[in-house]
Design brief:
3 domains, mainly alpha
Length: 137
């Protein structure tokens, strides 16, 4: 996606430098104001297995998400043939769609969101709200 955006900007005469970063480095750079535009993909590798994000003990499960059915399906993904894994992945994504690990909130610069679940979030155009999302209950 970044390459497509860069190509479109170049057609308009705007030159941009693309940089791929791991999650921690991206957060540091954004918090320090070291970038003008950033896009974060929800994954840490090309591997379509989302275990690091949604498994109960996932390394990047910052939301405290826990779903025993999803954990079981994530375990099943690691075994079997490619065709069997496709079936398990389909079931996993259906489970995640029915019981989502998080809700994406959109906030325009002039909008205010008030929700008891979102009370701990800091909504500011100067700070990404995702920095505090782990505090939601």
């Amino acid at each position: 996606m970044g390459e497509q955006l860069k190509a479109a900007l170049e057609q308009a005469g705007i030159t941009r430098k693309l940089e791929r970063l791991d999650y921690g480095s991206l957060l540091r750079k954004v918090e320090l104001g070291g970038c003008q535009l950033w896009f974060m993909g929800f994954g840490v590798s090309e591997n379509p297995n989302p275990a690091v994000l949604v498994a109960t003990d996932g390394e990047y499960n910052l939301f405290g998400y826990s779903n025993s059915m999803a954990d079981l399906l994530l375990t099943e993904i690691e075994s079997g043939t490619a065709e069997q894994r496709k079936t398990v992945c389909t079931r996993l994504w259906q489970e995640l769609a029915e019981n989502p690990p998080f809700a994406v909130l959109y906030q325009g610069q002039r909008e205010i969101a008030v929700n008891i679940r979102g009370a701990k979030l800091v909504f500011s155009p100067l700070r990404p709200f995702t920095a505090d999302i782990y505090q939601l209950t």
